[in-house]
Here is the input.
Amino acid sequence: MPGHTYAVSKLQAEQHLLSLTNRKTDLIIIRLPQVYSAGSPSIKRFPQLASVVEGENTTHFVHREDAVQAILMLENSDYAPGIYNVADDKPLTVQDAATIINKALENIDMTTPQGTVNIPPMLRRIMQATLVLDTNKVTRLGFSLKYPSLELGVYHDT
Here is the structure.
């Protein structure tokens, strides 16, 4: 079981949903990392938030278009119930992700007007957590990413 409170709450919710299902009910759980598009507020703020954490932990991202396509594929098919992870092909360190995003957004200012970043404790813990997802299950079903990396997806605002 994961040690981060946020992750634990997600896992507990999944376990509760799974306990409610029976043979007549198919449940598909789709796990997504940070969903982004080039213009999303969360991706614009990511380099700023990353500047206040160590940033050596790794994390996945998934472009908004890829997340939607995975949900539609799984929802509109007769795939086996279960848990499916959907994420880009390669997790990055938080600092590497911030560098890629900063470059794509044309070197945005990584500080607040006051010169410091105020990050709530829960968000700081999320930024410091490692999130690496095994996407083999959804890939075996034939799902492929339009944007397999943050480097490719962050330039495409849809």
About this structure: DSSP finds seven helices and six strands in the chain. The first strand starts at residue 28 and ends at 31.
